Amino acid sequence: MIGRISGRLDWRGPESVLIDVRGVGYIVHVSDRTLRGMPGVGEAVSLYTELLVREDLLQLFGFPTMYEKEWHKLLTTVQGVGAKASMSILGTLGAEGVARAISLGDARAVQSAPGVGPKLAQRVILELKSKAHSVMAAGGGLMDVAEADDAVIEAPAPKRAAKPAGAEQLASQARARAAADALSALANLGYGPGDAAQAVAAAAGDAPEADTAMLIRAALKLLAPKG
Q1: Beta-carbon neighbour count of residue 56 at 10 Å?
Q2: Which of 40, 108, 214, 226 is most deeply packed, by most CB within 10 A?
């Protein structure tokens, strides 16, 4: 199983890229969002990967972080959501947006992804709402960006210094870590994982730049008994 690919970006297409790893070219399918964040042709690149195996087909799908890869794996457990639909959802919403939409039961957000109809979007919400918290809680430890070291993970080579992540990527990492820490804090206070995930997602939607302490305070207000 190929878990990560690092090498030189040789070609960019509308839905996939070609990465040269020591003379071997790997075609990796990526979302629009991931493609926009990749370097130029000829530069070093690295992606976490998921291998899809069928009788007549082998396809690699690439993700900038393990957090996004875990969401892809979870999305494809839903009946009717294949790899293409999952990449469309992630490309439209991003990993954080997917977490928020599922936690809040926002089927319209999921439906905004190209190729995803209302019935499928509702199924994603229904099947994953009780599972969203598990990936969200792990988010803080899964946000590191894959480092470009010109090696396939099964045959590592000495690493070179990775290019620093962009401002958007760093902000995304910070938000995911804040949400994961807030979820952990609420769990320690005795709140159920589903309720906590919904409250944190709502708080993060209202204040995208909130830090952990702000998310906890906002979530606690949302979880407080009404009346």
Answers
A1: 4
A2: 214
CATH number of the domain that 28 lies in?
A: 2.40.50.140
Global pTM reads 0.75
End-to-end CA distance of the chain: 54
Q: What are the residues whose beta carbons fall under 8 Å from the beta carbon of 98, sequence distance 6 or more?
A: 71, 75, 89, 90, 110
CATH of the domain at 77: 1.10.150.20
Virtual torsion, Cα 72, 88, 7, 45, nearest 10 deg = -100
Range of the domain at 208: 167-222
For residue range 159-197, what is the model confidence (pLDDT) as tens digits? 444 444 556 666 777 777 888 888 888 888 788 888 888
Name the residue type at position 177: R
Residues 6+ apart with CB under 8 A from 225: none
Q: What are phi and psi of 123, to 5 degrees?
A: -65, -40
